[in-house]
Amino acid sequence: MSFKHNTFRLWGYYGYEKGFLGYATNKYKQEAKAAGKDTLGDDFIISKISDGQFNLLEDFKKAYFKEVKDKSSRGLTTVAIDGTTISSYDGLLALFKAAVAKDAATIKTDNKGNKSVSTSHTTKLKEAVYKKLLQETDSFTSSIFK
Length: 146
Hints:
Layout: H1 2-14, H2 16-24, H3 29-34, H4 42-49, H5 57-73, E1 79-81, E2 84-86, H6 89-104, E3 108-109, E4 115-116, H7 120-136
Antiparallel strand pairs: 1-2, 3-4
GO cellular component, one term: extracellular region
GO molecular function: metalloendopeptidase activity; zinc ion binding
């Protein structure tokens, strides 16, 4: 799961060539070997992708999330989801809290004590938000942030 998330974050931040291919392929394998590394690790890759700005993948993630949080506090592209107009992080958060609460109400326990929960409300909301933002940003060629 981390690989997929890291790959998409790096793709979104640095673009397909530099971010996606740089992280998801062996693009830097020979350079790592030449630098005396036994394996091609995340830290070597992020240093290369970021041109030395980050030496640890965790440092990139912290900076990335701070930037996203800062940008989202200024507002989001306005979208309508199930009749509700959303243009802020707080508005989006409220929708997700409601969806998660609906899903949490479906917790079931089987005869062995194992619990399960449906995530259908949350999944449907994620899909709806994605599709609306895709539409409103011309396939994400413009920013989701105001």
